[in-house]
Amino acid sequence: MSIHPVRLALSRQGENVLLHKIFCAELMFAFLFCSVSLRILLVNTKVPRKTKDLVEKVKQQYQKHPSIIEPILDSIDAISLSFLEKFKKMEEEGDTQEHYTHLNHLISYNQNLLSTLGVSHVSLDEIATIAKSFGLHAKLTGAGGGGFAFLLLPPFVMEATISDVKEKLAKRGYDHYEANLGVNGVRVQFDNNIVEEDNSECISQ
Question: What region does 8 belong to: left with phi over 0, alpha with psi -120 to 50, or beta?
């Protein structure tokens, strides 16, 4: 099984990656080095899906209704670029509620457009609804159709609210995991304070 080059690059390098299609089959991706790190909550719907089938579903819609589907895809691309621009402003101006409000709007726009393309799922829609009931925003990840969603956790949101969201999601049978976007990739950490009998360094992680 082959490993997606973007996933491999992110695992090794960390940070953020901008993926852009140049020609029909060529892809370009570049690392975006910035100090912005976003706290998120990953939510597992536990719904299996096949990426290939979902991609084919969108492809068929595009072939039947290109004048309708293409603007939707263009809007999704515009959302990604707007997200990137806001990242740059956050690096210069710091975390503000205004910046996070903008990011939340983009997340909702993206989820709604993906739902229009038919790649969402009732479980993903429910997660988005739960998030919204607590003033948060969520969207599907990957190809959709199940799998994972993520909620953006702005720094000004109270920890009690985040705990309530987690509790509500758990009651609905969803697993959740906190994570941070834009951090370092895989690292080998040497602990020089731990010495083996042969005085060699011990890798702690």
Answer: alpha
- How large is the angle between the packed helices 97-116 and 122-133, nearest 10 degrees? 160
Split at pLDDT 50, 70, 90, the class of 4 is low
Pairing, β 38-44 against β 175-181:
antiparallel
Longest CA–CA span in the chain (Å) reads: 70
pLDDT in tens, 37-82: 889 999 999 999 888 899 999 999 999 999 999 999 999 989 988 9
Parallel, antiparallel, or unpaired: how do β-strands 175-181 and 201-203 relate?
unpaired
Between the alpha carbon of residue 74 and those of residues 7, 62, 77, the distances in Å are: 23, 12, 5
The token pair at 154 is 């702005």
Residue 24: which residues within 8 A CB-CB, separation 6 or more? none
CA–centroid distance for 125 within its chain: 16
What are the structure tokens assigned to 9, written together?
């690059």
Give 37: exposed, middle or buried? Use CB within 10 Å, 0-12, 13-18, 19+: middle
DSSP the chain: -PPPHHHHHHHHHBSEEEEEE-SSS-EEEEEE--S--EEEEEEE------HHHHHHHHHHHHHH-HHHHHHHHHHHHHHHHHHHHHHHHHHHH---HHHHHHHHHHHHHHHHHHHHTT---HHHHHHHHHHHHTT--EEE-TT-SSSEEEEE--TTS-HHHHHHHHHHHHHTT-EEEEEEES-B-----EEEEEE-TT--EEE--
